[in-house]
Design a protein that fits this description.
mainly alpha, 207 residues
Length: 207
């Protein structure tokens, strides 16, 4: 009886992996990319780029068109972040955390609101699932990615909030592997916040 249960469980797992293999591959590469980002390692960007292309397909198939479109913007931002971090390492020997000016913070948040309404309206016309919620998350994900590329600690605060909301959305869309991935992103973002703060403090003290 135990053997039959194990066999049934193994079959169910194999069937899930076969059906959701692409999503699982995206989840693994995305998690790895985020962890490498918390360590401020340049290799985080090409790893993240792989996950972006995978999720572009996953989201399109799930009808999350705003998320699929978001991946296109992520490609641009990721290439920029890769270049910007590389230039910083070349000039300074490491990726240094940069303070976020208050004016830049306010501008980014306002642009996030504007982007949410504009993208939500477009997504609704395309009959996308959860158009305005998806668009809001997309808009502020772009803000967080920009801050990350610019090496601002604030990117982690925004990712904590955005990732937590994404968990509920992906559960609703029955993307369980992605929901679990984004649930894991929250503590990873907390880890990134802690490590980047520590790096910024060490830079100030010269230690």
């Amino acid at each position: 009886m135990i053997s039959a249960a194990v066999t049934a469980y193994s079959s169910a797992v194999a069937a899930y992996v076969a059906a959701h293999g692409l999503e699982l591959a995206g989840a693994v590469t995305a998690a790895l990319g985020i962890w490498l980002t918390t360590r401020r390692l340049l290799i985080c960007w090409p790893i993240t780029l792989v996950s972006i292309f995978i999720y572009m397909v996953v989201f399109f198939r799930a009808g999350l068109f705003s998320d699929a479109l978001l991946q296109v913007f992520f490609v641009v931002f990721t290439v920029y972040g890769w270049w910007h971090w590389w230039r910083g390492m070349r000039d300074e020997g490491e990726v240094r955390v940069v303070p976020l000016p208050r004016q830049s913070l306010l501008i980014a948040l306002v642009l996030g609101v504007a982007g949410s309404f504009a993208l939500g309206t477009l997504a609704k016309r395309l009959h996308a699932a959860l158009p305005y919620l998806d668009a809001m998350l997309m808009s502020y994900s772009l803000v967080a990615t920009w801050w990350q590329a610019r090496k601002h600690i604030a990117n982690w605060w925004l990712w904590i909030l955005v990732d937590a909301i994404y968990v509920g959305e992906y559960i609703y869309k029955d993307l369980w592997a992605t929901a679990l991935l984004y649930a894991a992103f929250v503590p990873l973002a907390v880890l990134g916040l802690r490590d980047w703060r520590r790096a910024a403090n060490n830079a100030k003290t010269g230690s």
